[in-house]
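B., you asked whether I could sanity-check this one before it goes into the benchmark set. Here's the sequence:
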Amino acid sequence: MKHFLVFILILASNAIFACGFYPYGEDVRFSFFNPENFNYYWYSGFDYSSDSFCPNQKFADGIIKMDANEKLWRQYCRNKVSLESIKEVLFDFTLEDITDKSTNEMLRYLYKIKDIDAINYLKFAKKCEVFNIFNENLWEHNPASLKVENRTKCIDEAILVSNSIKNKNLKQRYTFLAIRLAYYNGDFPKIRTLYTKVFETQKQDNILKYWSLYFRTFAEPDKAVASFYASQVFANAPDKRFVVSSAFNSQIPIEAILKYAKTNKEKANVYLLGGIKKADRSLDYLKQVYKYNPELDGLSFLLLREVNKIEDWVFTPYYSLFNPSIVSYDENEKNSVKEIMKRVERDRIYAGEVLDFIKNLNLKKVQNPIFWKTCKAYLSFVTKDNQGCLNQISKLEKNISKKDSIYNQIEIIKALALTANQKTEKAVILNDVKPILLKNKNHKKFLFAIGRELEFKGNRIDASFLYSKLEENPDNYNYYNFAYWKSSKAKVGYYTDYYSDYFTYINVFYSPEQVQTIIDETVKSEKDSDKFSVWKHSFIKKEIPRLYDLIGTKYIRQNKLEQALFYFEKNDNKSYREINYSDCLWEKENCDNRLKDPFLVLKYTPEFVVQKKIFRFDKYAITQKLILYLKQASNPAEKNKDYYNFLVANCYYNMSIYGSLWQMRRYGQGETTDIRDFPIEDNNEYYECNLAKKYYKQAYKNAKTAKFKALCLTMMARCEANKLAHKYPDDYNKPKKNYETFLWNKNRYYKDLELNYEYDYDRLAFGCNAFEDYFKARR
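And here's what the prediction gave me:
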């Protein structure tokens, strides 16, 4: 199971076990609307995620090619030098590299036109770089200790040059350097003074102003004013967004921040950052940004975040029954399936409100109309208007190149809508959906969602094939790219309350007939050569022996032994048939994965008959022997009915949680947890030993001696005790001093044992060392 691969990485606070992996956050989030398809790289640090905001990785990845400062320098050089030469000077060169001997295109240009002022600025900026860091003195706590004499000299020099130089661009650059150095010197009053003098009244904005405002923001003591400044820096200085966002205080009423905005654009900027920092619904902020500055690219990003929120709120619980990765409601609310689905429907209604907003605005005003139309299509799907979604996608397909990343995005939405738009009991994997599945075969949650839609429509067979693809490792391994889901029919899965692989799921919820259909289709598909069919059946094709074993196991659960034997015999791969136990033998013996005869030995009980050899069993052999003993036990002419009924009862007892043959009914010890509402059909039998009690009773009826009758009655009482423990766990888990009272009051077989076999009661009811003697006394 895939979740074991991240076992040691995460300790979930809501895990069932005290330690170990439990999916949460991004593990469970369902997202089909990928921000990377829409090129809002400058905002990518604020993509919706349960992991909170993170620094913009796009810089490190080289996706963002040119920032505003580089553009400003290129303009300064009249666009006559390359971007690469500018980057080289700004990021790679040292002070010593800036000479008239340099081959760098930018420097050659500046020396050629004799712009000594610009050259001197570059040299000064390089000299100051070493001071752009905090000096921490662990022994001094006085803020004055942060000041460095050389840094202060640089500040004074920058201010002096700024006051005297005529070039406005360089004047601003020197002032910015002084502001930045003052920040690292902890001189906030100087920051405020310099900013007010040079930048506050500046009519033409540029990156230098907003870089300076960035430091001015952190020098502002008034939180509302600082929040206003932060919103303006956020909108205009993309490389400062991540850090400056922390200066925006979401606890302050938005109106208190807006009062410092003088223009519509400034108001839009306030609503933009306020909306981005909201974890819950932000439609009102979207409306306000559109009202004041519809062309702002941040408006589109804010919509992208809102769509990502909505799909988390709707699809994470809808497909998986997990809560959204970021909860948008009171976490103390009930988490019943009914309540979860009520919340989903409320969030679908909200999605409709966002959709209405898009429908009612003028898309010619927004920065990226195609993106907004894509959102419109997707939100139509979210609101279950599948046909409306498909109609919108049909229009989009005509205007988008197939090479564009957005094209694959709309195909994913299209596949979901096409699948969900089918009638119940008639849903299939449509031909138009097949190539989209192949193209996105590594998108595990997308595959699962298509399977889930098919399952909701009654097609559990095709769903199982898609679920099986979760087992295949994607090309780009990502812990978040697996599907984890719960079931509305059970609180427990295999080891936990969730599922993450196809086999565990069909083991619990599919009938033997459905599993056989999966096998039949896989075998039939061997004649198919089309790419999709080969891909669809490729994993199950390797699983057929395991599925035959599963069908046999399911028939064991139904006590249909002949059918079980048939499927165990079909399974040529014995690795799925063998019973492998290390705890089935008496502790002092070496098991070597061999099983003592389960018809003669009970787990944790000395053997009734000393065996001359230890047998190696598999499911086929045990089932075959059980059928044989049942026939002998029911044969009217059989003289040893008591004996064979007793052996049959032992086998059934061993196939319960209390025995050594639990693998006849289960596929993991995790399934042996005492869960009363576990949906596997033999759950009661597994915990209550009803069949064992039935055949112990038959052995009792046919017993010829009092001692053997006492042994049969003891085993009936033991089965009854297991049943009572399963049905009344609270009563059963009483202190030891109440244990005997419990047995007497509710277990009539122990009552009969004490009343009718008083001498044997203590030996049989409270120990098992006498079992061999009582068994030998059968005759």
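One thing to flag: The longest helix spans residues 297-320. Otherwise nothing jumped out at me.
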